[in-house]
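Reference record
================
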Amino acid sequence: MTQSINELQDNIIEEFSIFDDWMDKYGLLIDLGNALPPLDEKHKTESNLIEGCQSRVWLHADYKDGKISFQGESDAVIVKGIVSLLINLLSGHTPQEILDADLYFITKIGLKEHLSPTRSNGLVAMVKQMRMYALAFKTTEK
């Protein structure tokens, strides 16, 4: 059975709590980013580029059988790790689950205060874009 968004968040919090040092946490983010499958070139379009990110971030969403799957990529390693976290967390869920999700892991792992203001704005922009996709797909549901 698919884990709920909150169960997945708790896993992320647990994974990050292993490390005390933020350099190690950045290392984990970089590893997550490196594990992210590359985004197909056909999805690297202006419309998939997220506004408000310092680095270039593309986000693509597909909707099938009532669930959304996200793909993404960034040209910055740490940002790519954040993209990977969000994709792993929200992919495979319904639009309503995504819209209802309280993404508390961001605060719990200390991500917000350890990102530069521009990266933090980028994170907010990524979450907002994922919610926009969810809203768009929800309105197309029969």
Summary: The first helix runs from residue 5 to 17. Residues 5-140 form a domain with the Sufe protein. Chain: A fold (CATH 3.90.1010.10). The first strand starts at residue 57 and ends at 64.
